[in-house]
Input
Amino acid sequence: MRRLTLSLLLAINLAPAAMAQEKTLTIYTYESFTAEWGPGPKVKEGFEKTCACTVNFVSVADGVALLSRLKLERENTEADLVLGLDTNLAAEAKATGLFEAHGLTTPAVDVPGGYSDDVFIPYNYGHFAVVYDTQTMQNPPKSLTELVEGDPAQKIAIQDPRTSTPGLGLLLWVKSVYREDAPAAWEKLRQRVLTVTPGWSEAYGLFTKGEVPMVLSYTTSPAYHMVAEGTDRYQAAPFSEGHYIQIEIAGRVKTSEHKELAQQFLVFMMSPAFQNIIPTTNWMMPAAATSEPLPDAFSRLVKPQKTFLMDPKEVAANRQAWIDEWLTAMSER
Amino acid sequence: MLTVRERWTGIGGSAVALGAILVFIAAAVLALLLFQPASSGGAIFTSYTWNVLRFTLLQAALSTALATGLAIPVALSLARRPHFFGRIWILRLMALPMGLPVLVVSLGLIAVWGRQGIANDLLLTLGLSEPISIYGLSGILLAHIFFNLPLACRLMVASLERLPGEYWKLAASLRLTPLSLFRFIEWPALRQVLPGIAGLIFMLCATSFTIVLVLGGGPAATTLEVAIYQSLRFDFDPPRAIALSLLQIALTGLVLALLGLVKRAEENGTTLAAPSRRFDGWTGTALVWDVVTIAMAVLFLLLPLLAVFMSGLRADLGRLLTSSAFMQAAATSAAIAVASTLLASFVSICIIKGRLAVTDLRDAGKAGRTYRGLLGASSSLVLLVPPVVLGTGWFLLLRPVGDVSCIAPFLVSIINALMALPFVMRVLEPSMQTHHDRTSRLVAGLGISGVWKLWHIDRPVLLKPALLALSFAMALSLGDLGAVALFGSNDFVTLPWLLYSRLSSYRTADADGLALILGVLCLLLTIAGTFERPTERSGHAAG
Output
């Protein structure tokens, strides 16, 4: 039994042992940020050069799990900084009382929809979009209305707004366009929905396996396929009404012992040194100026004419009611 | 016959094991109940909740009926032919679905039964104009049959193989027709294990999560488990999660009790344990029937798995296997699988010994029977406790005490062990019971005990079921994503977690490759689980 315990400990404690430096900045984030191909390793390296400190990432599954983790740990949290919430979760995150104003001016930040806040600072964004397979779909919908009213035989995979942020994004998108007619729109769209998956990965997996010609994803998704795989097969459909935006944000934690360091990180986050890393690692649009031009593929992405973004407070206040509305519209026989 | 001391260690040990399980669950539940959420997600018992509940029970009942019903002919055919080429591989194949992450298997099923799948291609060339769609109840049922038919089949084959060889000899000399054979020998054997198997499958289907969401087609097809997950993950409303969990446990438990699926009577006659030989089934029709039945079952199981394997072969396997991320995740997964398997086996044996000891008491009375029933019920109903509830509860409890990333592996091992418990019990108990009935008097009479008894009396008979149980539990733990998701940190990555993380950053080829690797690992495990020494007879083999 002891040998077993030992091997267990060995298996899990292979974390870098760079504890010699004095200060450690603990950043809570989501898993794909810290993956070996994600922005995390480069961001860590870049910031450590400037701060005489160690960056320690703690990652959970996604933005939603991040918020749950904070709600669970409350004042006992070890986080100095939280990176990876989005604007739809911002109001609920603030309501925990765990966050503190960043105390910075943010002229460098430029995101569509003009989100600006005294607690959270955006680091990247992406517009939700219907991504389609050009090999099986010649005439993709040109608007949300066309998506809703189009041929029910051409299916789309979407995500559940109860368990995923893109799912919630689509819910808010439809709400922004259709307002009180949203339930009727969902009843129509339902005919085209092949299935509703728990998260982005499952839906996107169905899409790339060729099971469904359309999937709810981001305007930036085609960039991955163009840059990393060299294929133009998957494209995003521009919608004439405009696109709902997902802005990812970071903020300082009140109970942190390294508040200045956290602030320093936020400044770094808005600088080109950080922003250069984002496009080809997180596959999102940088929220501030980069010093290097973006890869060509990014210039070929859909640029939404209009951006939808609801006030985080409005989202927080109505989310449950709108989800109930969605459930009813989607499950009526 | 047990000695008084053996009897009381059995009862005592099982009481400790049962207590530990109940305390582990109760502590998590209590921690969640005491947590005051910032906001409450509204009423629990809305009409939507009732719809969900109805659908949960409906799909679980249908899935159970179909999976067990279809498993019967397959099990009968397999048991009738104990020695054909490739049989052992079919049994091994049947353990594979359990060890793969549910999402991977779902994608494999879609490759066969989906809109662009093989089945639809075939139908379209046959002249059908529109592809048939499996999304909805039919997709859920299909996937549940895929996962549970092999499980049911293996347990049934094991029970048929435990039948003493004299039965077949007698049947042959009486020239019983296949129908009478089924009526007087096979069905009575199956009837003993059926309630247990059906109960297990019912619980697995009632708490199904990923299958229901991916193949269900929309929120009309959903389970309580989804609502529980949502209330913890999105709303973070622990009391709501607990209320829903209690609803799930109470109602599913009630349904199981009403169907008589929780308690089961297992009685095996003592025999000489002579090697089984089957004398029936050599007519032409029987042969054709068995070949067709077995072939169809194999095709049904093999095609989706082949689809998973084929897409995995396209990945850069060499790079994947040598990457440090993979090796670290493999080491973590292996350590957790081993730990949870040993724990599950240890607890199972404690509980089984307790049940045997109570049966052994001549004057056990009502209290004894109740205790025996309680042991059986709680070791299977544990499946109804959502892992996310256990994980979150213990996270809350331990968070103030120490570093979560150090505690996480132990917690995940314990939770996995609990989830494997009902499987291990189902495999081990009938064998231990039969073995006990056959040998206990003799052993007591000869005064054999301790290590000597373990090695010379128990090992030869119980090694095979034990290996099977171990391989079941390990495969289950290897493919499990559930409990890990909550604790995820950079230092704690398992193979399914790694697979999901590749999938969540567009790296589908890597994910396919990892699925293949997981599949091969499980196959290796099941080879170990069905290990057979060439000289050993298969008299009381467990399949």
Q: What stands out?
A: Residues 267-274, 534-543 of chain B have pLDDT under 50 and may be disordered.
